[in-house]
Write a structure and sequence with these properties.
There is one protein chain. With 681 residues, the protein is an alpha+beta fold. Helices cover 26% and strands 30% of the residues. It is built from 17 helices and 33 strands.
Length: 681
């Protein structure tokens, strides 16, 4: 296939209303037309598809366990024999929606089954439903409630009333049928649009939706509460933990009528409906009440959230509220059960999360990079030390007990672990490492070390915590299955070359050399140039796209002033300039040559802009992909220029298998080679 949030504060906070509740529907009927799809059609729904010319994609009504267009595996419809599914033959955007009216004064719940099969190695989630956002990849699915006047692909804050669901980096690649529900009561009295949409820009991504139901009747949810310690009752995004239950019973949750509620505490604003919680179980307090609020993506906003409690007929700010932005949880410990809600305070921040960090050094004081550090206790996390021997855990929930341990093959650590109650930032959780006298094994055999090394070798940076854990867990999840682990190591390794981050940074540098000088870069040229383009870029969090764009513009502007480039092109007219660059793409360029020349002639384009359009042209990028892949095997793994015979051997083999690195056994051969493994002995 083609290689293919910022929510408004209001929209982000509204999602806090969406605790995953499943009320009894005995008193209400579904108001969605053809929500069960048993008609064998998509009647009642409006569908839209946008894809490349000559290809097909859309939403379909299906039955069975394969998709109707590409014949990929998908779960069978969870209810009845029919469901809706997406399918595609190339990069595309698919939307399915239906307009519904929520009666004034009503409580409304939207529920549906969701399941999917993502054949790519992960998810990519820019704030867009364009399958190729400004030429960058997109691989995501999302469910939103939007206005009926919005463009059907819009994710603008003013158009999205409630962002309900979005795949994210680190999610499982295959999801079985899962029933979810969302509270839409805040939209009472409005006609709104329920939208299911996906952008597929990297590989086949099949989405199944079934049993879409909108009800407008409140109901009580019950959970059995057993005897024992640390007994949990989970109501979706609202959960209770009883430290000790002496007598079993039933715990109930009822959404209360918002119009009948008394005012919140002074300075607070309700951000969720009120939920009355009661139990017949006999328990020992305090009970830990936790709301999970995944859509509030602003850390400052999150720290001003409060658990509101109504123990004696009056709403109060629960003083034990703890906001953990990392886990997106807001919790409080209470001695009694009564109505609860989420509020936002204009006062001081809620008890905030802390940071735990430290340094690992050898007995002679040298920093020890590549050491895995595990955090256990109130939460379990994993990090790895950087070049300076430092590690860091941010957004650790304060007022809890934690232990930190360090591990790396062929080393012993003193102390063996560190344990402490976190009352504030912990900045001295450090260790001293002593190398074993008898060294056995190779560091690169450690999944954690292997993943960190790929960040350094291909992306030129230390790993971010989420990415590090995602990729190392891909390998570790194989357990003792050696064949599984070997294949995962190969696929994880290749993913760094195929990633957006590399393709947009190292790939740009490679393209500039090939288009400008009709040759691949040398290792000595590539490394410093790629380091400039990748500076401060970490795909996913923050404003990475803006940072990357600024880096690319600055680099290409400087590139056309380099002496070698000026010597080759300063004496060429506009036609010859464009033709020479295009000729260097070896027939790959498939853009509009005339428009480039015209842009230069009328000064609407600079030579730097024309060069960039040619370098980033999808035809050229595709044409040079295998050559760059082989080149990076040498640059990334062996840290040297390729010998020509080896380069040609692997290029021929990769071409023979249509670019399939697994069938060509190329990546596997490099990562098991003695030259690569000897780097880490």
């Amino acid at each position: 296939m083609k290689k293919f949030i910022r929510f408004s504060l209001k929209a982000a906070l509204l999602l806090a209303l969406s605790v995953f509740l499943w009320p009894s529907q005995a008193q209400a009927q579904c108001t969605v037309t053809n929500g069960d799809f048993e008609t064998t059609t998509l009647a009642g729904w409006t569908v839209s598809s946008r894809t490349l010319t000559g290809y097909t994609s859309n939403w379909y009504n299906y039955t069975g366990t394969v998709t109707p267009l590409s014949a990929h595996s998908i779960s069978a419809p969870p209810q009845g024999s029919r469901a809706a599914v997406t399918d595609q033959t190339n990069a595309s955007t698919q939307v399915m929606y239906q307009d519904v009216t929520i009666p004034a004064g009503a409580s409304a719940t939207l529920s549906f089954y969701i399941y999917y099969n993502n054949t790519h190695v992960g998810f990519v989630t820019p704030n867009s439903l364009d399958y190729a956002v400004n030429g960058n990849a997109n691989q995501q699915f999302r469910v939103d409630v939007i206005t009926t006047t919005a463009n059907i692909e819009s994710v603008a804050a003013g158009d999205v009333l409630l962002p309900l669901y979005q795949t994210k980096v680190g999610d499982p690649l295959v999801k079985g049928p899962t029933l979810v529900s969302y509270d839409l009561s805040s939209l009472a009295g409005q006609t709104v649009r329920i939208r299911f949409a996906e952008a597929v820009g990297l590989n086949f991504f099949l989405i199944g939706i079934d049993s879409v139901c909108l009800t407008t009747t409140r109901g009580t949810i019950t959970r059995p509460t057993a005897t024992g310690t640390n007994v949990q009752n989970n109501f979706g995004d609202l959960a209770l933990n009883f430290p000790t239950v002496a007598t079993a019973g039933t715990t109930s949750l009822l959404q209360l009528d918002a119009a009948a509620q008394t005012a919140p505490p002074t300075g607070d604003t309700f951000l969720s409906p009120a939920f009355d919680i009661s139990t017949t179980a006999v328990f020992t307090p305090p009970v830990n009440v936790c709301f999970t609020l995944p859509a509030i993506t602003n850390a400052t906003t999150f720290q001003h959230l409060r658990v509101l409690h109504k123990p004696a007929g009056v709403w109060v700010d629960e003083p034990t509220s703890v906001a953990n932005f990392s886990s997106k949880q807001l919790c409080a410990k209470v001695t009694s059960l009564s109505p609860f809600a989420v509020g936002q305070s204009s006062g001081a921040p809620t008890s905030s999360a802390a940071t735990i960090n430290g340094t690992i050094t050898t007995s002679d004081g040298a920093p020890l990079a590549g050491t895995t550090v595990n955090l256990s206790g109130a939460s379990s996390r994993k990090a790895i030390t950087d070049t300076n021997g430092n590690y860091r855990f941010e957004n650790v929930e304060a007022a809890d007990f934690y232990s930190v341990t360090a591990s790396r093959s062929n080393y012993r650590f003193s102390p063996s672990s560190r344990s402490f109650s976190v009352l504030g930032n912990v900045t001295d959780a450090s260790f001293s490492a002593t190398r074993d006298s008898a060294v056995g094994g190779n560091d690169i055999d450690s999944s954690d070390y292997f993943v960190r090394q790929h960040y350094l070798d291909f992306l030129g940076r230390e790993p971010d915590e989420s990415g590090f854990n995602f990729w190392s867990d891909q390998i570790l999840s194989c357990g003792g299955d050696v064949a599984c682990a070997d294949r995962r190591r190969t696929n994880v390794s290749a993913s760094y070359f195929l990633s957006i981050e590399f393709q947009q940074t190292g790939g740009l540098v490679d393209g500039l050399y090939r288009a400008s000088f009709d040759r691949r870069p040398t290792y000595a040229e590539f490394l410093p140039d790629a380091a400039v383009v990748v500076r401060e870029v970490v795909v996913g969090p923050g404003n990475w796209a803006q940072q990357l764009e600024a880096n690319k513009q600055a680099f290409i502007t400087a590139w056309v002033t380099r002496p070698a480039f000026r010597a080759a092109y300063d004496n060429l007219g506009n036609d010859a300039f464009v033709d020479t660059l295009i000729n260097h793409t070896e027939g790959g360029f498939n853009g509009d040559r005339a428009a480039l020349v015209s842009g230069l002639n009328n000064n609407s384009l600079t030579r730097a802009a024309v060069l960039r359009q040619i370098v980033e042209n999808e035809g050229f990028v595709r044409a040079k992909s295998n050559q760059m892949f082989v080149m990076m095997e040498y640059f990334g793994y062996l840290r040297r220029d390729p010998d020509e015979s080896g380069y040609q051997f692997w290029l021929n083999k990769l071409n023979q298998f249509g670019g399939n690195f697994e069938l060509a056994e190329m990546v596997k051969s490099f990562i098991v080679s003695s030259e690569y493994r000897d780097r880490f002995r």
